[in-house]
Amino acid sequence: MDSPVKDRDSGKELRRKPTYELQTVDLSYMLHPPTATSTSWLPWRSISSCTTATSRSILRGVSFKARIGEILAIAGPSGAGKSTLLEILAGKELPGRLSGEVLVNGRPMDGARYRRISGYVTQDDDALYPLLTVEETLLYSARLRLPNDGNRAGRVKALLAELGLEHVAESRVGGGNVRGISGGEKRRVSIGVDLVHNPAVLILDEPTSGLDSGSALQVMSMLKFMAGNQGKTIVVSIHQPGVRILELVSHVLLLGDGSVVHHGSMEELQVKLIKSGHCIPPHVNVLEFAMDVIQSLKIVVQAIKPIEAKEEREGGRKALETVPEEELPIAAPEDGHGRLEPATFRYANSAVNEVGILSERFCKNVLRTKQLFTARTVQSTVAGLALGTIFLNGGGWREKIGFFAFTLTFLLSSTTEGLPIFLEERKILMRETSRGAYRVASYALANALVFLPFLLMVGVLYSTPVYWLVGLRRDILGFLYFLLVVWMVLLMANSFVVCFSAAVPNFIMGNSMVSGFMGCFFLFSGYFIAQNNIPKYWLFMHYMSLFKYPFEAFLINEYGSDRFRCLEKEQGICAMDGSQLLAQQGIRLSEKWSNLGVMAVFIFGYRLISYFLLCYRCSGCRKVILIR
Question: Which 3-state string (H, E, C) describes 585-598?
Fold first, then answer.
């Protein structure tokens, strides 16, 4: 299994990577209906896990082998259990009851180590950063998944050649409104993201779905080359295979209603059809014909006897005795009593390096996202100039209070435009963390750090014109405090949107919830109704309002330093000065800095909540099963 080979360029002897054979023994999976205590009511839980009325058997006694250097194609009609079987082979945690065995080289599969030698590409793995180039996409994946040994760039160059993507290496991936590469090329990029760490096992869910016949053939030819020339074990699911694609497949696993109908070559399937009394029309795809008549075929489940399964496991262990223990990242260690101990997983980079790499990638995406960068900067500058000319020289204290209220409305509501971007990033985060590319904490910290300078720039562009045109407190300390409050308002709103983007299932619900909460916060801010007049049972909303603390900070900054300045006269007598206005609003001068502290707590708190929500979301993708 582990023989030395010579490098083509240097002639030096290199150690060939271990190879792995997958096997399932009497694998069954039952999906149960949700219980009253389940979490299926949560909006971010999968629809499929909460709409089942009765227990349903998805897989029934599935046994097969996926051999080294071959492509095993899993076929069957819709609902046959293809995707579920692939998820199990990839080590994903599923909500139902799983029984049977999944063996890797004859040993029980342990997912934490198995992730290091396997790659899993789902149907929706085309969720890529559209503004990164093909080479940048693969390079960032390499930097996150490979140790820093100086060979990451070389690995990416070689991978571009293997995938046939050298001619589009400098082209942007594209997607949505961004023009980019073709669908077939994008699918190969998605596959390349999971090939960058050179996995020995590759599992793909319908890699040809949505592609034309030429692109589909190109993708399958690439997989055939990797299986035969690099000794990879490749398992794919195919929905509507063409004749030329089937010629590249080594064996077929045909599923019908969760059971094995056929496991073997295409020739053996043709013989089975003929023996079952079927006459295959000329020029008809044998596999598609078998899927059409699958109900009339006799379901053959190749059950493996327990003693035979034990012999295969023992044989696999003996074959692996020649391989160093550190090269067996698939089976959990035993504690001496036959019990499996939990396996640990080591990331390719330290947490600090992960934050640096992710921050760099975030910066590139923000700078290239015109809707978020250019539009936001122009919007802030124009809004600052426009509001400054509308409230020119401020007017009376009532006009300034209205200006402060409108400023907060503008700043807090304008951040919802980042919601669809965060939702798209969430898909990529869940995919990458499920592969063990980096920690969720590194992503959360990098996301927060990148927006610090960006939102500071937005705050400067808005505050500089509007502060002096409106004629607020005319000194540099007052301006710097005003800018600090504006910056923290932007950070607070950004953290609030990030928190909801981690919780909601889609943009429509997220936008509705964010807008609704912002309206409630404005209502209870103290602008429309004073704190003393708010009913006690609604008082908690006043203290939770994102408007309350910056609104009070603006008033303190404007009227606190010169609180005895007369603001309103009646018959030549001062009817209200700055101290009376603050007292009327229930504001104390000592709250000037404590309000900023509360805003900092909101920023940190919403970020922390979003981190836990992302951890919860990613745990379902990243958790791996151990089947005995």
Answer: CCCCCCHHHHHHHH
- Which residue's structure tokens are 């900067």? 377
In angstroms, the CA 210 to CA 410 distance is 42
Are 163 and 188 a contacting pair, CB within 8 Å? yes
| Residue 430 vs residues 112, 433, 443, 504, 623: alpha-carbon distances, Å | 16, 5, 11, 14, 12
Contact status, residue 250 vs residue 70, Cβ threshold 8 Å = yes
271-282 tens-digit pLDDT: 888 877 778 787
What's the burial of 307, exposed, middle or buried (CB within 10 Å: 0-12/13-18/19+)?
Answer: exposed
**CA 431 – CA 122 distance, rounded (Å):** 9
Mean pLDDT for 212-228 is 85
- Paired with 569 in beta bridges are 574
442 vs 496: CA distance, rounded Å: 19
If you average pLDDT over residues 163-189, what whole number do you get? 85
Cα–Cα–Cα angle for 458, 460, 461, nearest 5°?
Answer: 65
Q: How many CB atoms lie within 10 A of CB 92?
A: 19
Mean pLDDT to the nearest integer, 559-582: 71
SS (H, E, C) 369-434: CCCCCHHHHHHHHHHHHHHHHHCCCCCCHHHHHHHHHHHHHHHHHHHHHHHHHHHHHHHHHHHHHH
User: What's the token pair of residue 119?
Assistant: 């790659």
Q: Which helix (H) or strand (E) holds 140?
A: helix 134-145
Q: Which of 89, 107, 86 has the alpha carbon at shortest distance from 18?
A: 107
DSSP category for residue 298 = P
Q: What is the distance between the terminal CA atoms of the chain, rounded to a whole angstrom?
A: 25
Residue 245 contacts residue 215 (beta carbons within 8 Å): no
Sign of the torsion angle spanned by Cα atoms 130, 136, 140, 146: positive
* Cα gap 51→61, rounded to integer Å: 25
Amino acid at residue number 216: A
Instruction: Kindly state which CATH superfamily the domain 4-111+223-327 is placed in.
Output: P-loop containing nucleotide triphosphate hydrolases (3.40.50.300)
pLDDT of residue 286: 84
Return all residues near 332 (Cβ < 8 A) that are at least 6 apart.
108, 110, 112, 113, 340, 341, 342, 343, 626
Using alpha carbons, select from 627, 560, 624, 547 the residue that is nearest to residue 592. Answer: 560
Residue with tokens 């996926």: 66
Greater confidence (82 vs 344) lies with: 82
Handedness of CA 579, 580, 581, 586 (dihedral sign): positive
- Whether 592 contacts 484, CB under 8 Å: no
Per-residue pLDDT at 334? 44
Compute how many other C-beta atoms are within 10 angstroms of the C-beta atom of residue 157. 15
Task: Indicate where the chain has its CATH 3.40.50.300 domain(s).
Answer: 4-111+223-327
* Secondary structure E strands in 39-134: 56-66, 71-75, 97-104, 107-108, 118-121
For position 147, what pLDDT does the model report?
Answer: 83
Query: Strand 4-6 to strand 118-121: parallel, antiparallel, or no bridges (unpaired)?
Result: unpaired
DSSP-based three-state secondary structure for 63: strand
